[in-house]
Amino acid sequence: MTNTPAKNLAEAGIMVYDIQLYLDTHPDNTEALQAFAEYKTMYDAAKRDYESAYGPLTASKSNSREYFEWVNGPWPWEGGIV
Amino acid sequence: MWIYKKALQYPVNIKETNPKLAMSILSQYGGPDGETGASLRYLSQRYTMPYKEVSATLTDIATEELGHMEMVASIIVQLTRNLTMQQIEEMGFAPYYTDHTIGIYPQSAGGFPFTAASLASKGDPITDLTEDMAAEQKARTTYDNILRLSKDSPDVYNVIKFLRAREIVHFQRFGECLGIVKDHLNSNNFYEFNPAFDNNCN
């Protein structure tokens, strides 16, 4: 299965979040801290791809001077985001 | 404060219409062991939690549960898209439709509206974390029940499997939190005092 912007974002996103929860209870674990930094780099790259396909993930990333892109769909619950 | 991210933690793309299955899954939105209650439980408990690792865990798991509310709602929205009146009547959706049309309302599968009575915030770290571990297991059981009901709906099944796995991770983290709390207490009597209340003993 080829990786799509949404799949890459979800895959990197769950890794970052899962390690974040682990670090909450193991804040001095250097191995987990390193993995956190590595997956965060992956997530940031996936986020750039995703935003160029589907628009801003957060309202503050709307840059247009003509139209507030944030209001545009698709909204996550509508589906069809691949 | 929170900042909304316009994406789901795990994408939801459901093609079929199945209001019957939607009614069962609605329980994980507003039912007794659902995501709304989970998030509210952890968000409320963290204010009296005296240990920083546990405050962080409660904050981050509560935040993830808010995202899970949105995922569960997305499943229901997509399962009830393009409903015909015949499907509403034949697939057990008429009672819900009468009150909410196809709007998303926090209630249990049996129709009971969301109630904070399904969660606790006791102001005692051992008590609260024990509640949280039980809550994660109750949510896991509910997802197991939903999995048995969604065998023929692979798009739904995969999302529910993801959510079920998260409950197990959260249970693990809360177990570690309970260990962190006990490390701060008297190992001869963990219940000697309440570290969230008897402040001279911290």
Oligomer: heterodimer
> What percent of residues of chain B are in strands?
under 5%
Order of helices and strands of chain B: HHHHHHHH
Q: How much is the average pLDDT of chain B?
A: 97
For the sheet with most strands of chain A, the description reads: none
The total beta strand count of chain A reads 0
The 3D shape of chain B can be described as elongated
Query: Unreliable segments of chain A (pLDDT under 50, ≥5 consecutive)?
Result: none
**What class would the helix/strand composition of chain A place it in?**
mainly alpha
The pair of chains with the biggest contact is:
A-B, 31 and 29 residues
- Continuous helix count of chain A: 2
**Alpha-carbon distance between the termini of chain B?**
28 Å
Helix % of chain B is 55-70%
The number of helical segments of chain B is 8
Any overview of this molecule?
- The complex is a heterodimer of chains A (82) and B (202).
- Chain A has helices spanning 5-25, 30-54.
- By secondary structure, chain A is mostly helical.
- In chain A, helix 1 packs antiparallel against helix 2.
- Helices cover 58% and strands 0% of the residues of chain B.
- Chain B is built from eight helices and no strands.
- In chain B, helix 1 packs antiparallel against helix 4.
- Chain B is elongated and about 65 Å long.
- Chain A binds chain B through residues 6-7, 9-10, 13-14, 17-18, 20-22, 24-27, 50, 55-60, 70, 75-82, and chain B through 3-14, 53, 56-57, 60-61, 64, 70, 73-74, 77-78, 169-170, 173, 176-177, 180.
